[in-house]
Amino acid sequence: MEYLLIIVSAIFVNNIVLAQFLGICPFLGVSNKLSTASGMSLAVCFVITLATVVTYLINKFLLVPFGLTFLQTIAFILVIAALVQMVEIVLKKVSPALYQALGIFLPLITTNCAVLGVAINVVSKEFSFGGEAHMLGLGEATVYAFATSLGYGLAMILFAGIREHLSLNEVPKAFRGLPIALISVGIMALAFLGFSGIV
Amino acid sequence: MSKFSLITKGLLKENPTFVLVLGMCPTLATTTSAMNGLEMGLATMFVLILSNIVISLIAPVVPDKVHIPVYIVVIATFVTVLQLLMQAFTPDVYKTLGLFIPLIVVNCIILGRAEAFANKNGVWDSALDGIGIGLGFTLSLTVIGIVREILGSGAVFGFKFITGDGILAFVMAPGAFLVLGYLMVLFNKLAKK
To answer: Is A34:A158 a contact under the CB 8 Å cutoff?
Structure first.
C-alpha cells in the first residue's frame, strides 16, 4: 500500500517537471517530436533509477560513516557522470539497437538536474506518504526514483503531443517558439494541480 | 569588446534567461517572491564569477579530452564552498532555496560560460563576464519574482500594497511557467523595436 502511495505521489501529485521544476532544459529541448521525447524519457528513466540506487549506497556506506557528507554534491555529480558514461559503454556492447535509440540522449543526461536533484532529495529529505515523515529506505528510494522518472516520461510525452499540434497552428509572432511552449506547460501544470490532495 | 560592455551585455543583449534561455530550473522554481529570486541570482553569480576566474587560469594546462569533467569539479567545489558559507551565515535563505543551491552545479549557465568565454579569455575579462552574466540572471530572476509576488500575494519584497488574498496559483508551479512565458513574449516584442 505504501509503495502504491509513493508511486501515485511521485507521478501525479509531485510531478518532477510540473511541480518540482527539475529537468526543464531537456524537457523543453527535446519535446518537439513524440519519438525523440519517448527516447529521452526512456534514457532518463534508466539513469535516474540507477543513479539514485548507487548514490544512496555511496552516501550510506561511504560518506556518512566517514563524516564526509559535505562532499555530497561533488561525489554525486562525479558518480552520475561516470555512471552515464558506463551505461553508454555497456549499452553499446550489449544492445546496439537500444544504444542507437538512446545514444544521443545519454551524454545530455549528465547535466539533467533531475538526476542530481532526485539523488540529493532522496538522501537529505524526509518524506511522508500518508503516514509519518521519515527518511527513505533503499527499497522505498528505488521505487520513488523509478516512479519519479515515470512522471518525467509522462509529462514529456504528453507535452510532446501538445507541441506537435501547436506546430501546425498559426501562432502570433512574439509567441512563437519557447513562449507558447512555456504557456502550454503552465496550463498543463494547472491541470496537474488538480491531483494535489490525493496523497 | 570594451570592459564596460562585458558587464552590460548580460542585462539585455545576452540575457541568460530571455535570450540564451539557460538555467530554467532555478528560474522557475525559486522565483516565488522577489526576494527569493534575488537571493538565488546572487548565489549563482557567486559561483559563476569564481568558476570563471579559476577556469580561465587553468584552461591552458587542462588537456582537451578531460576538460568537461575538470570544469565540473571546479564548479562543484565552489558550490560546496557556497553551501557551507550559506549554512553558516544565512541558514534561513539556505533553507528556502533548498535543493536548488546544490543544483547550481548542473546549471548550464555556468558550464556554458566556461566553455564559451572563460576558457579562451584572460582572468580579468572572465571575471567581468561572470559579473555581467550573473547580473543579468539576477535581474531576470528578480523581475519574474516581482511579477509573481504581486499577482500571488499583492506585495513586492514583502511590502503588501494590495489588500486581500492574491491569486495563489501564481505562487505555485503553474504561475512560474505562465509568467515566464508572457515575460518572454514581452521581451520579444520590445527587443524587436
So the answer is: no
Q: Which residue has the cell 511552449?
A: A181
Which of B39, B48, B95 has its CA nearest to residue B71?
B48
Distance from C-alpha of A55 to C-alpha of A46, rounded to nearest angstrom:
14
Question: Which H helix or E strand runs over B159?
Answer: strand B159-160
**Cβ-contact B176, B152 below 8 angstroms:** no
ipTM, two decimals: 0.86
Q: Which helix (H) or strand (E) is B155 found in, with range? A: strand B155-156
Pairing mode of beta strands B155-156, B159-160: antiparallel
Domain ranges for chain A: 2-193
Q: Domain for residue B170, yes or no?
A: no
What does pTM read for this prediction?
0.88
Total of domains in chain B: 1
Q: Are A21 and B176 in contact (CB under 8 A)?
A: yes
Comparing CB atoms, the residue among B76, B77, B108 nearest residue A25 is B108
Residue count of chain A, please give it: 199
**Looking at chain B, which residue has its C-alpha nearest residue A71?**
B80
Structure confidence by residue, pLDDT tens digits, B139-180: 999 999 999 999 998 888 888 888 878 888 888 889 999 999
CA distance A12 to A96: 33
User: Contact A81/B79, CB-based, under 8 Å?
Assistant: no
- From chain B, pick out residues whose CB is under 8 angstroms from the CB of A180: 181
